Task: structure prediction
Amino acid sequence: MSRITALSLFVLLSLALTGCSDPPLINALDEGDERKALALIEQGADINARNRADDPVLVVAIRDGYTQVVESLLHKNVDVNAKGDLGVTPLMLAISGEHPELARELIERGADVNAVDRMGNNAMTIMPLKDDPQLIQLLLDNGADVNKVNKNGLTPLMVAAFLGHVEIMKLLLSKGAEVNAQTVDGSTALMRAARQGHVEAVRLLLANGADVKMRNSDGETAMTWARKHHRQEVMEVLEAAGG
Result:
């Protein structure tokens, strides 16, 4: 191999390796060096840079728990709606990571409450996993769609019903949640509450017009699910409602 060819190959390899490396700010986070990351931000590092997995700095910082970095990024007006490689937003991460104050700050700074990830989930389909009615109210006050569904047709009310989060269910219903909405396989909030044995959730849904006779794609009703999972008290409530 000639000297020129070898040198050219070296340059190409160097460029390739450089192109594969993450930005310095993300490298600092990956190394666990929060002080270095903060210094880089103050020195003017690109706060909207992305790593090789296409995750923006803010997503990495929230995911890995670098609170001071997150605050510094927000102070520098980072893009609060920059999605990660799976379409996950900073707001979704704050909610799923149980950081309610951060979620509130993101919303105040313009986070899109209806943004969706690749599975069609948004803040409202994730939020009922956390029993925090106040944060749900904040999402709704900022334009969140109470009936937003993911790719499986799952609604916020269905999630809350499955978990038995009655106060959240009351809030969602008061804001117009569709009580008889069905997933792609035909299941309803009532079926999910019945399956889990959440008696108060079942009563609440029935009081708000849940159809006890609705069937899923397999022909099953809420009573079918309650019986299958031995939910005796739920069965009695459903039977009294005509199920």
Observations:
- The mean pLDDT is 90.
- The first helix runs from residue 3 to 20.
- The chain is about 55% helix and 0% strand.
